[in-house]
Structure formats: structure tokens, C-alpha cells
Amino acid sequence: MIRETNRLRDQVLGSRFGALAALAPRGLTGARHVRGQIGSVGRWLINSREHTNFTYELTRNNIEQLIWFVSAITEEPYETIANYVGELRGDTKLRSAYSEAIRNSRRRSLADTDPRFGRRLAWYAIARALKPGLIVETGTDKGLGSLVLASALIRNGSGRLVTIDINPAAGYLIRGEYADVTTIWRGDSILRIGELDQGVDLFLHDSDHSASHERLEFDAIIPHLNPGAILMSDNAHVTSVLSDWAQEHQKRFLFFAEEPANHWYRGAGLGVAW
């Protein structure tokens, strides 16, 4: 009977009515996917306060991919990068500072008190491995990424972070020892990059995500880069700007795609040129 059923199914699917016959099972497959997404959105609406710049943990497999990604860029062993990633994930001091800053903020109704690092694990591990003298970040927002980079500098025992944002309210999370190694610059990132008077070892684009502005930032930072500098784009899942820039300047380029755990957002990505 099973063999006869399979033969009949194959005949139907191989006929001119095959597309019509497959419509129902295809619809069920799509419905299962959408149902899962709807449930994920519902849990997010209840459990999270975020309305933009969503944060989330990565899947276990994705964290493994991230470690290998950073290892390839920095030429550090897997074990070394895995230790750096574990440092940040287990940094109770940073988590406490973040949570306290959120609770004391006027914007506490729009942010979650539990920091979730996502691709910022790679930012931290790269900064730990590179031991940069100066990091420049564009696009501070509330300052989670800045805290991550500042924490890496504190662990390194040297280095400074300059973070640039046009919003005068940006960076409200940056306090205490993290503020001690961080300078917040207000204003247009292109103009402020031109004011740098020290060589840059690590540069992160995370501001205006239009392709034209991203390109202007990478072109502006060129005269300020130290030999061996690493450039990162938090917009590489949307544009090919950094990839194109890397080809033009004979640099290497790799891309890391996020896989969020238990979140409806499909994830962003990180491009790195070196």
C-alpha cells in the first residue's frame, strides 16, 4: 500500500498538476515558519523593551564560527580567541555597570537591563588580540559597543577609545573606569575623523549606514591608519562598501553573519578588512 501511495504521489507530482498538488504542503511548511516567527515576536514584545539596535545572544554554533573568524583575521590560535570570548561573556563587572547605567537612565523604558553582546564578541576579541593603541568607533548610540571595546582596552592594560556620534545624548552608558579610557566626540564623523592627531589601529564604522556615508568614513580614515590597522564595518550585511574598499587597497576581507538565539530578528553581520 505504501509503495502504491508513493507511486501515485510521484505520478501526480510529475504531471502538469504537480505545482498545484504541492501547493498545500508548501503552504504548511511556510505556515510553520511564520508561526515560529510570530511566537518569537510575541515573546520579544513581552520580555524586551528595545525598539531599535536589537541585542541578542548568538547560537552556540554561531559563537564557534565567530571564534574561528577572529582567529583567521588575527592569526591567533582558536584557544586564545575562545578565551577572549569567554572573558566578555563572563564579565560580571561590565554586566553590572551596564545594568546600573540603564536603570539610572531616563531612557530605561526603551532598553533592556541585561547586556547581550551578539557580534560585539568579535569586536572584543579583535581588540584583545590586536592590543590597539587607539580605537576609533563611529556611531556610539547608548554605548554598549563602546563598553565592550573599553573593557578590552582595560584588560589589555593600555590603549584609548575615541567614539563619535552626532547625537548629544549618545554614550550615556559610558561611566566609571570605562569612561577613563574613552573620549566621546560629538559631531559629524567625517569632520571629526579629520581632527585625529594620533595613528589608528582599529576602526569601526557603525554610524550612518548609507553606502555613501560609509565610504566617506573609510576614505577619511586612510591617512590616520597605522601599519597593520584593522577596519570593521557593522553594515557589511547591507552594503559591499568595505569589501570594495579592501579590493581597491589590496587588503583582505572576511564577513561574519550572525545567527541570533531565541530572537525574531535574523541578525546583522560584521565585515573586517586588514
Q: Specify the CATH architecture of the largest domain.
A: 3-Layer(aba) Sandwich
The total strand number stands at: 7
What is the CATH topology classification name of the largest domain? Rossmann fold
User: How many angstroms separate the termini?
Assistant: 62 Å
Structural class: alpha/beta
How much is the average pLDDT?
90
Could you estimate the helical fraction of the residues in percent? 40-55%
Q: State the strand order across the main sheet.
A: 3-2-1-4-5-7-6
Oligomer: single chain
Largest sheet: 7 strands, mixed
In angstroms, what is the radius of gyration? 22 Å
Unreliable stretches, pLDDT < 50, 5 or more residues? none
Overall, the morphology is globular
CATH superfamily grouping of the largest domain: Vaccinia Virus protein VP39
Tally of helical segments: 12
What's the domain count? 2
Secondary-structure element series: HHHHHHHEHEHEHEHEHEE
CATH class (first level) name of the largest domain: Alpha Beta
